[in-house]
């Protein structure tokens, strides 16, 4: 089958008014990726080499997003929304390039999995002209019904056109279809609009193909494959199902999730075996974690790279450009942004490291802040290998601390510190014997006098 070329036509011209959103429906994200891009990924995983996305209104916005997430996909505008067959024909130019297989998919049905599509393509390879992906929803209302006769699929009837007997059918149309490329245009062009909605139904090609003596087949997929998103409640349901799948995958590939239902992955999270993820961890886009890391509870991580055996959190925030090398440690209430934390370095408590390098085995004390921003520009802080930054220090960038440099607690460091130097950036301590007691007595008698005067 791998030699068969495959085009997927993804229908996404609907307005999605029930989302009540300024964003086109199919651009709403699931795991950080627009739902239509999930559909493209599934098509690609099933071997599609080209994608044609049929769009309607807000074409510019759609094109911009597709260029970012699915740069290979072509877009075609369906000017008037006259039905699913009409929508597929908006991509006529792509279809007429002569692909072996055409996969018709919906941009708002993001959980379709590659296996269901691959199975449909297999049926085409075996000689079917049309393959319908069916499913059995708990309640069939609203779906097209698969009408079978003698074990063969003979028609799909939209609910509005169903007889009472047909309404009782529980085997429904998930919407997606695979069509043999050589028959596709002939079948689609034969579709009319004589039905309850006056639309050109893609589903009519089943009867048309049957009448031409072509082979039509139904396969069965699970409910989530057919989950169409029309509102935000369904969006949340799809997110939940997607996360469930991803958690399962992570655990089966050797990642421990202590409380899987509380860990949220991004569409592109990479996470190595023997990583342990404690409860309530959120991964935004662009996270790569090598093996053996510990991600403690309540950490929020995006755009970060975490090498082997690192220790992160609890309550750590790693922002884009955080680059933790082997065995680095970023502890509680620390934020790291655009900074390399080299091998074995420790940033353990209450610290902000931004636009910086922390050298190997350096120790960053509690409350250290890299002051990287003057309100206009960002500046770099370089901390050498083995340096020790005393607690509650401010490093005012641009500044560098040499290898083995030692910064006294509470310092404000504005000038470079050479290798192995000790730097104080604070007033020297003054201690006056007996003065504490004297002050206390003075304050106590003042308070007593005030109280007496008030009586
Ligand atoms: C469709 C199927 C139905 C199936 C159901 C599964 C048809 C005729 N019916 O019905 O059998 O059970 O999906 O969810 O195919 N679109 C366009 N342009 C159009 C019309 C639709 O781009 O002119 C897009 C929509 O944006 C959507 C998809 O095609 O992504 C499906 O259209 P929709 O109107 O939702 O079809 P259903 O009535 O749900
Ligand atoms: Ca629908």
Plain-language structure description:
By secondary structure, the chain is of the alpha/beta class. The chain folds into two domains: 221 residues, Alpha-Beta Complex (Spore Coat Polysaccharide Biosynthesis Protein SpsA, Chain A); 182 residues, UDP N-Acetylglucosamine Acyltransferase, domain 1 (3 Solenoid). Helix content is 23%, strand content 27%. The chain contains ten helices and 35 strands. Strands 13, 15, 16, 18, 19, 21, 22, 24, 26, 29 and 32 form an eleven-stranded parallel beta sheet that branches. A ten-stranded parallel beta sheet has the order 12-14-17-20-23-25-27-30-33-35, with helices on one face. A seven-stranded mixed beta sheet has the order 5-4-1-6-10-7-11. Bound molecules: uridine-diphosphate-N-acetylglucosamine and calcium ion. Uridine-diphosphate-N-acetylglucosamine binds next to strand 1, helix 3 and strand 10.
